[in-house]
Amino acid sequence: MKNIDSKKTVFIIDGSSFLYRAYYALSQMTDARGLPVQAVYGFCRMIKKLIDDFNPGYLVIAWDSKGKTERHDVFPDYKATRQAPPSDLFDQKELIIKAADLMGIKQISRSGIEADDLMYSMAKELSEQSYNVMLVSSDKDLAQMVDDKIFMYDSFKKVVLDRAALEEKYGFAIERLPFYFSLLGDASDNIPGVRGIGKKGATELAQEFSSLDQVYADIDQVKKPRHKNALLEHKESAFLSLMLFKLRYHALDSKAEDFSFSALQWSHAAPIFAQLGFRSLLRQIGGQQLTFSPDIQTVDQLYTFVTITTREQLKKLCQEITEHGQVAVDTETDGIRPMEVVCVGVSLCYKKGTSYYIPLAHNVDAPQVSRADIDEVLKPVLEDERIGKILHHAKFDQHVLRRLDIDLRGVTFDTLIAASLVVEDGQRKGLKYLSHSLLDEHMLTFDDVVTKQKLQDFSYVGLERATAYAAADAHQTLQIKDPLEESLKAKGLLKLYQSIEHPLVQILFEMEEQGIQLDVDLLGRLGKQVDQDLVSIESEIAQAVGVVPGTINLNSPRQLGQLLFEQLGLPPQKKTTKRTGYSTDQEVLKKLSHMHPVPRLILVYRELYKLKSTYIEALPGRVNSETGRVHTTFSQTSTATGRLASFEPNLQNIPTNSHDYSIHVRSAFQARPGHLFVTADYSQIELRVLAHLSKDEQLVSAFLTGQDVHKKTSAGLFDVAADDVTHEQRQIGKRINFSILYGLTAYGLSNDLGIPVGQAKTYIEKFFAQYTGVQKWMEKVIEKTKELGYTQTLWGRRRTIPQIYEKNQTLYGLGKRLAINTVVQGTSAEIMKIGMINVRDALLKQYPESHILLQIHDELLVSVPEADAQDVQTLIQSKLQSVVDWQIPLLVSTHVGKDWYEVSK
After folding, report:
1. Per DSSP, what are the bridge partners of residue 152?
2. Largest CA distance in the chain
3. What does the alpha-carbon distance between residue 214 and residue 219 come to, in Å, rounded to a whole number?
4. Containing H/E element for 13?
5. In the Cβ-directed half-sphere of 712, how many Cα atoms lie within 13 Å?
6. pLDDT tier at 552 (50, 70, 90 boundaries)?
7. What is residue 228's three-state secondary structure?
8. Which residues pair with residue 262 across a beta bridge?
9. Facing residues of 713 across strands?
10. Which of 641, 640, 623 is nearest to 632 (CA)?
């Protein structure tokens, strides 16, 4: 196509197309208040990309109006099958409209007129005034208006389409598109079309006839009888569809100067970007280094922050803290791994209005407090249990202070843990955001003082700037403590915090500090074995398809697609949006595994390859050079259900085994000399929790009488006696038992088991017929969630479920599943946490050389001196089984061994 002069072209954006694409393209983002903003961010980013690519001189956004349109007058069921959009979508739309206004982008909507028709009308009027028009949309309906002066731009594919490109795509003149679409219909808009005519048939007819009128005038000229019969049978539907598809002109008196735009106006949106926390967009504003709009003060301008650089100043401060009896503490470091960093400084605040920063290891030419002063003056205060300590993410600071040989004691409140209990699911819990949301006070960010200044790390920040940043952390931590504590009380969560979540912080700190020994040499040998196994699988696949080994790259989706769908002739399941063509993801390969052995071998290959890259090759690099052990990080705040998460590295995901190959990565995790591992594993804890909560007679009876609950379920599914249940049937029963807990749908179960959806639906119906109490309990949970807007665990942890109010059935179904799963999984997590607290307290008193090392959801891994192994094994089992006094017993199995694999068998 010819070149487009952006300064003589009016760009018309399809607002709804941008909005929906932005909403669904990004995972959920929230601002400091916890409100969803991902659609706003995505929309603004798409606008910025358009500006960067074209620098348009004229720009306008067309929006659909609320309510019914002219097409509803013609066809009341127009768009009737569409599910309601997510409830937060239109809240975000209002923010988008505000942002676009600030950018100076003209926006247009008209009551009763669809955006497509507005775009058509503007394009028609502007092109008649000798302007080019660029329709920024991927909506196929708009293609019918493309001509010599009107073009389409798909911003997702970054493709400009002119008449020639569209006619090549469709195979006929653009003027025939309404005719073509009238035959096809559109299920998303509930436009019926002509039943029995698909894309191929519609294309053939559009190539042979110029219009719908012509095809009916020359109906006997239609070559294929089935097309002719379909046209005759659905004539009324065809003309109705044509009427719905054709764009309609409305006089708008459009003038290009009304849509004038300058790229410089982008910077005018800075206030809303700052309000919503879009720092990456702020950084793109003409090189300006903005964090908040200029009229907003940060806390360092509101309060007094003091740098402590002498022993005398430090002694005076510590004396005041001792007299006050409480202090907020924060540390600054030169990195993010707390067991490897250098502590650069410590912040202290014991009263509102004044906060202090003690620099220790800044790489600047300025006086700083010496290590001797820290040891002699500060350390006694931080180790004094009588002085209460308030921190945000205490566990991190405990590790950092331990680097200074300081054992932080007397921690009374952790604002991060408290915030994780009271803020909405998905809302940010960082100190900067809590300061903003709870106090409406803004803080300097790490980007402000380090990244934007292009400094290597915080140790290179000057003391004045460092104090402004660091002292604010301790000050705001002290300030948010009271509102968070009040919120815990108001929501009935104070007991959960005090009895479970707060004590757990110290236990997780101890677990992380202990770490676990890793046999790097053994991993090296396992790596060689995996390489041999991968070669073996490649050869087996090559032999199965008749090619020379090594000629197929099993890590290439494109080559796999050719192998499976062209060479082997297996039926394609779904296409990807990438150039690789057909999808070869895990879901697809599982389905194909029931048809041919090669997809199963590919799954095994991928599993082994991931095992090698994720664990065998990566874990040695995570061995701490000082301790010689691997130290994971446990998080109490990363999951909505309250389950613990492990990362850097994730030791909760270390596989117990790898398919049919004897690759036991867990065998590399070994007890230190003179010690053994003891594992304690709750048996079917989530099903036992479900039985307790639902009081289902069949489920309760199974656990009280020691029945195999998976066999019991299978017996009901297959109408056989429990003793006659086969291994395969039991596996299905087991999968369904846990599927119910996780809300797996019939479609999901059918994919999982490789069975028809109808059969999966029958299995689920039979489950609920067998366990009627479970179904009634689930219904009660859903109703209670609708009433409150949130669901609760047995100990009171809340999870807001906004999807429970959705009209969109997909989102509503998700809401129901989340409500039920949160109660069961969250309660199970709380039982384990209480068990950990009880076990740790007992070990500390009776076996102080024994330590909990890992928690893998319903399993504990404990290091025990060999001489104490049997006694500790009994103690742990007793403590875990006695967490609750229920009718249904909690059962715990224990194992003893020298490595993790040995105790996992």
Report:
1. 135, 161
2. 104
3. 8
4. strand 9-14
5. 16
6. confident
7. helix
8. none
9. none
10. 623
Residue 420 confidence (pLDDT) above 90 = yes
- CA dist 802 → 353, 424, 605, 629, 819 (Å): 39, 10, 40, 43, 10
One-letter amino acid of 407: D
- Write down the pLDDT at residue 425: 65
DSSP 8-state class, residue 868: G
Please give the single-letter amino acid code of residue 19.
L
**What gap in Å lies between CA 645 and CA 25, rounded to an integer?**
26
| Distance separating alpha carbons of residues 694 and 711, to the nearest angstrom | 20
CA distance 361 to 359: 6
- 3-state secondary structure string, 597-613? HHHHHHHHHHHHHHHHH
Distance CA 187, CA 77 (A): 12
As a residue count, the chain comes to 905
Q: Provide the angle, in degrees to the nearest 10, between the axes of the packed helices 235-245 and 225-233.
A: 80
Split at pLDDT 50, 70, 90, the class of 293 is very low
Q: How many degrees, rounded to 5, is the angle at CA 827 between CA 753 and CA 415?
A: 120
- Asked if pLDDT for residue 652 goes beyond 50, the answer is yes
Q: In the Cβ-directed half-sphere of 783, how many Cα atoms lie within 13 Å?
A: 6
Whole-model pTM: value is 0.77
Give the three-class secondary structure for 518.
Answer: strand
Classify each residue of 166-198 as buried b or exposed e, where b means 16 or more C-beta atoms within 10 Å of its C-beta.
bbeebebebebbbbbbbbbbbeebebbbbeebe
Instruction: Name the 3-class secondary structure at 125.
Output: helix
Token pair belonging to 467: 């104090």
Q: Read off the DSSP letter of residue 719.
A: T
Q: At what angle do helices 235-245 and 177-184 cross, to 10 degrees?
A: 130
Torsion angle in degrees (nearest 10) through CA of 271, 272, 273, 275: 90
Enumerate the β-bridge partners of residue 517: 629, 670
CB of 61 closer than 8 Å to CB of 105 = yes
**H or E, element range at 777:** helix 772-788
Q: Does residue 85 have a cis bond before it (omega within 30 degrees)?
A: no
Check if the beta carbon of residue 665 is closer than 8 Å to that of residue 516. Answer: no
Burial category of 532 from C-beta neighbours within 10 Å (exposed 0-12, middle 13-18, buried 19 and up)? exposed
Q: Is residue 195 scored above 60 in pLDDT?
A: yes
Distance CA(8)–CA(19), nearest Å, equals 26
Residue identified by tokens 């409406």 is 440
Distance between CA 143 and CA 168 in Å, rounded? Answer: 13
Answer whether 300's CB lies under 8 Å from 444's CB.
yes
Q: 669 has which bridge partners?
A: 518
The DSSP result for 393-425, as a single string, is SHHHHHHHHHTTT-----EEEEHHHHHHHHSPT
Round to whole Å and give the CA distance between 62 and 97.
11
C-beta of residue 13 within 8 angstroms of C-beta of residue 59: yes
Structure-token pair, residue 827: 């309660």
Residue reference for tokens 């006070």: 441
Return the beta strands (E) in 15-104 as ranges. Answer: 58-62
Q: What is the rounded CA–CA span in Å between residue 863 and residue 854?
A: 9
* Closest by Cα among 377, 376, 359 to 368: 359
The rounded distance, in Å, linking the Cα atoms of 11 and 611 is: 50
Sign, CA dihedral 687-692-695-699, equals positive
Q: How far is CA 791 from CA 380, 660, 785, 798, 817, in A?
A: 44, 41, 5, 6, 11
pLDDT value, residue 286: 46
The conformational region for residue 309 under phi > 0 = left, psi -120 to 50 = alpha, else beta, is alpha
**What does the pLDDT look like over 559-618, one tens digit per residue?**
888 888 878 888 887 765 455 467 888 878 888 888 888 889 999 999 899 889 999 999
d(CA 885, CA 816): 29
How many other C-beta atoms are found inside a 10 Å radius of the C-beta of residue 354?
Answer: 14
Query: 845 pLDDT exceeds 90?
Result: yes
For the CA atoms of 869, 870, 871, 876, the dihedral, rounded to the nearest 10 degrees, stands at: 80
Q: How far apart are the first and last CA of the chain?
A: 66
Q: Are 854 and 511 in contact (CB under 8 A)?
A: yes
